[in-house]
Design goal:
Blueprint lengths: L1 H16 L22 E13 L3 E16 L4 E11 L2 E13 L2 E10 L7 E9 L9 E11 L4 E13 L4 E12 L2 E13 L1
Antiparallel strand pairs: 1-2, 1-10, 2-3, 3-4, 4-5, 5-6, 6-7, 7-8, 8-9, 9-10
């Protein structure tokens, strides 16, 4: 049960970082609405490894999506969510994110699932899209923020990094690493999967 609790918290941090949750918030370029693109980013991570100090590790999967719902002054306003299952427990998140300038955004999330004692947790994260190199199409994003544990009535810091390498036909290979701190224990979440821009 203790392992499940930390796995859920790790997943919650994932949600805090994203709605793609899935693998962290996606970049502005991934949500462009032009030509045949609809401003949707879907992702599936068959590998999601949750680890917690003193609680061991467990593997699971994660499915997520983000959708540009309107265009703001500095970029799209984004609605997203994810569903994750690990060690027999489920976790979900609904999030909203808005761009504050050309390459940074602020996201808010509501999380729930098994192990939340009928309550919801909340997250607030700041995301920064890092500039791409001319010779390397790898997209990097970093995030930092606060995760509020409703059961423990405590706010905790969290941080993340996400990498996305574009492939043909709007697919990409996505990887992410999240760090969190909850109830005096540190933990992390590592994901690896595939993203698709619609």
């Amino acid at each position: 049960m203790k392992l499940t609790k930390y796995a859920i918290v790790a997943g919650a941090v994932l949600g805090a970082v994203s709605a793609h949750a899935q693998f962290g918030a996606v970049s502005k370029a991934d949500l462009e609405v032009s030509g045949n693109k609809q401003g949707v980013y879907l992702s599936y991570s068959p590998f999601a490894r949750f680890s917690a100090s003193g609680g061991g590790s467990s593997n699971g999967y994660l499915i997520a999506a983000e959708k540009a719902i309107s265009e703001g002054k500095n970029g799209p306003n984004v609605l997203g969510g994810f569903f994750s299952r690990v060690n027999g427990s489920s976790l979900y998140e609904i999030s909203y994110r808005m761009y504050m300038d050309a390459d940074s955004s602020l996201g808010l999330g509501i999380l729930g699932g098994d192990g939340f004692s009928g309550k919801n947790d909340f997250s607030a994260m700041y995301f920064k899209d890092l500039a791409k190199s001319k010779d390397m199409p790898l997209a990097l994003q970093v995030g930092a923020g606060v995760y509020y544990d409703s059961v423990g009535s405590k706010a905790n810091l969290s941080a993340a990094v996400r990498a996305s390498y574009p492939l043909q036909n709007q697919f990409s290979i996505d990887a992410s690493f999240w760090y969190f701190h909850q109830g005096g224990n540190s933990g992390n979440l590592l994901t690896l999967g595939i993203g698709y821009r619609m």
